[in-house]
Write a structure and sequence with these properties.
The complex is a heterodimer.
Chain A lengths: L2 H14 L9 E5 L5 E7 L3 E6 L5 E9 L2 E11 L2 E4 L5 E9 L3 E8 L3 H25 L1
Antiparallel strand pairs in A: 1-8, 2-7, 3-6, 3-8, 4-5, 4-7
Chain B lengths: L1 H13 L2 H10 L5 H18 L4 E3 L5 H41 L2 H8 L3 H29 L7 H28 L5 H17 L4 H7 L7 H28 L5
Helix pairs in contact in B: 2-5, 2-6, 3-4, 3-6, 4-7, 4-8, 6-7, 7-8, 7-10, 9-10
Classes of the chains: A alpha+beta, B mainly alpha.
Chain lengths: 138, 252
């Protein structure tokens, strides 16, 4: 492959890394006095938990890292919605205990700063390489 | 010592000159390299992102559940890679292989002095090289942005098993295209075989999975067995492809 094409392929890969921002949110139903456990994969920094009905639930949130389970939040109560910021990517375990019939929506959105940095750097490199190619031709 | 190494590299790059040119002219024209790197990787990443979460009520321990979810995520990534690779092999490489044999461009290179066996070998080597690059980049994406973690030996075994599976399916396609030389029927038949392998036959039996889908194993021992058996199958398939290919007629 030529140098120009390698840079272009890397730039396309950096665009592909923005795909997790378009991940669809998932909805689960909750039944009173039965704990519900969900394991999901976080690929974006912001996690948004939204309840369909305005009643309180209590959650435990854990993170799986290198064969160990690390607890982040314990017995956290919220009523309408909860937003957690700056989460590192990985597998998370959510345990929910609800007192009423309810539905919870788990949405994962946002972009890491490193991704934007890589995108801008490769874009500038691409512009530079293509500009050079044009100058050689003309 | 360094001059010896330098001479060796120079000799290697100058040997098989005709065959390398032939492979470049017959197969790796019009962005096949870039497609081989980008398409399986991005399809695998899409499959990875759209895997549904795991829910359960009670019973199994959390660590076991985490490990099950992790293996399900990596399997969906590998499924995407498999789908992308088989579609590229069917839609690009098999059609080019069949058309180059029927329109005389393969015969032209053989007439100049290129050897058939070496053309086949260099086709395999180039395909392995670029698809391995794509799979490695895909693994980097899945392990960094996807956030799942494996041991380094497991990652290496998964990579070798994936690449060995890619060789197997390329060779199956080539051997199929020697028997049925039709630019429409052969890709469809090949895709049908690959789809039945992925969705119907793979979950059925373990022995079958060792040979034709070695990367879909969870434990390190079964991965090793899968790698060994699929490499054995690859050698057999390569021999038989050569045997069949040398006996087929060429349009010169």
């Amino acid at each position: 492959m030529r140098y120009k094409n390698i840079v272009l392929v890397l730039f396309i890969i950096s665009i592909i890394t923005f795909l997790p921002g378009f991940k669809p949110s998932q909805t689960y139903s909750l039944v009173p006095s039965t704990p519900r456990s969900i394991i999901f994969d976080v690929t974006s920094p912001t996690l948004e938990l939204t309840l369909s009905q305005n009643s309180g639930v209590s959650i435990n949130l854990s993170y799986y890292f290198g064969g160990n389970v690390v607890q982040i939040k314990q017995n956290l109560n919220f009523t309408n919605s909860l937003v957690l910021d700056n989460l590192s990517p990985g597998l998370y375990y959510l345990q929910i205990l609800s007192s009423n019939l309810n539905e919870i929506t788990i949405g994962n959105s946002g972009i890491y700063i490193a991704q934007i940095g890589v995108f801008v750097f490769l874009g500038l490199l691409n512009l530079y390489v293509f500009n050079k190619e044009l100058k050689i031709r003309s | 010592m360094f001059t010896g190494l330098h001479n060796y590299i120079q000799n290697y790059s100058e040997s098989d000159k005709f065959e390398k040119e032939a492979v470049k002219a017959l197969f790796f024209k019009s962005y096949l390299k870039e497609i081989l790197i980008l398409v399986p990787m991005s399809l695998g990443f899409l499959f990875f992102l759209f895997t549904s979460s795991d829910t359960y009520t009670s019973g199994t321990s959390i660590v076991t559940q985490f490990e099950l979810m992790r293996s399900r995520l990596i399997f969906s990534f590998l499924e995407g890679v498999f789908v992308g690779i088989t579609v590229i092999i069917a839609m690009v490489q098999l059609i080019r292989w069949i058309s180059s044999q029927s329109d005389g461009s393969f015969g032209y290179w053989v007439g100049i002095g290129a050897k058939r066996e070496k053309i086949l070998r260099h086709t395999l080597i180039s395909t392995i090289y670029f698809s391995t690059l794509g799979v490695i980049i895909g693994f980097i994406l899945v392990f960094s942005i996807g956030g799942i973690s494996f041991g380094s030996i497991e990652i290496l075994a998964l990579l070798i098993a994936t690449v060995s599976n890619i060789i197997t399916w390329l060779l199956i396609g080539l051997i199929l295209s020697q028997f049925i030389q039709n630019q429409v029927l052969t890709p469809i038949l090949f895709l049908f075989l690959a789809a039945t392998n992925l969705y119907a036959l793979r979950p059925l039996s373990e022995v079958y999975r060792y040979f034709l889908a070695p990367q879909f194993n969870t434990t390190i021992n079964s991965l090793m067995v899968g790698i060994l058996l699929s490499l054995l199958l690859n050698i057999l398939l390569f021999m038989s492809t050569l045997w069949v290919h040398k006996r087929s007629e060429l349009v010169l």
